[in-house]
């Protein structure tokens, strides 16, 4: 697994993918946080990072599929998948190695946004007038969200040899898992079952963690969805349909 992780992460660093993804994410979130008047924290007048944690997931829906789309699709296109499978590695070694490489890149992209926290912390009146517990909870939720999106992207890459199809599939699945169930629950058909349907989606648990209270039920949800995506990827690899 470590071999695959090292190979995948180095391939990101040796290409423009990592730099483009991190650069686009930080530039986009920086403009939304500080420049665009409709979302700027300076115009908003409150010391919080709501813009980052509300709009960041939608940015991730485009950037993470761009990272993961080549995970297996590129191996199959280049004909190196068979070579990878002949090495003394289990399917789980390969899957986890690729997942952790993608997830590590997501964490690298998130790390510089801590500057936003310290900036808002200093701009508060009085200084430090910010809900630090809520921010830390939101960061944990953001990281878990990024991890789940990575597992979705890897699954999409495993089921198709075409990177563009993998990108579109991953983007759609990420959007549906994040807010699809919430939209479905809003339909006036389910009565008392609406909350149960809403709890199936990521948004419900993401917002719950963002309040600063890290509930074990929310953690179990994120880990369960991630494991389900990776287990499905394992089934796709085991089929050896290529």
Supply database-style keywords.
13 helices; single chain; 242 residues; mainly alpha; 0% strand
- Low-confidence stretches are none
Number of helices: 13
Q: How far is the first residue's CA from the last residue's CA? A: 22 Å
Q: C-alpha Rg, in Å?
A: 19 Å
Structure description:
The protein is globular. The protein has 13 helices and no strands. The chain is mainly alpha-helical.
Characterize this entry briefly:
By secondary structure, the chain is mainly alpha-helical.
Blueprint (SSEs and pairs):
Layout: H1 2-13, H2 17-34, H3 41-44, H4 50-68, H5 73-78, H6 81-85, H7 91-110, H8 114-123, H9 132-158, H10 163-185, H11 194-198, H12 202-210, H13 216-238
Helix pairs in contact: 1-7, 2-4, 2-7, 4-9, 4-10, 7-9, 7-13, 9-10, 9-12, 9-13, 12-13
